[in-house]
Amino acid sequence: MLYDCGESMNPEIDVGQAEGAFVFGLGYWLSEHFIRDASTGQLLTKNTWEYKPPSAHDIPMDFRVSLLKNAPNPLGILRSKAVGEPPLCMSCSALFAIKRAIENARSEISQDTPFSLHAPATVDVAQTDCLVNEDNFTL
Q: Of residues 19, 32, 85, 108, which has the active-site annotation?
């Protein structure tokens, strides 16, 4: 990720903020699924047995973040820019990548009909959207 944070006051913190915001977004788009009781509205996914925020093991092993050089913000404090929100927004790229992977899986079994992929695209949702069943496998 090449990130424009203006003139960084502390590059290590800015890189950490960009990584953290992106991983936070990965959780939002891919794993954090809230389930509520239909009649009472009570939250049913209230612990990590059912609710899956990202953990340290969910951070990509090869995650390169660089800060754009020579891009000061003339109106910002010490010529800096915001760090947290833009990488969070960029994390939707993972959802689009999963949608493309599902489209390719569906085309391999001649089931390439249009479909909507809603967030969070959990593993079970992605598997179901691939339309794979036991008839597609040969042993």
A: 85
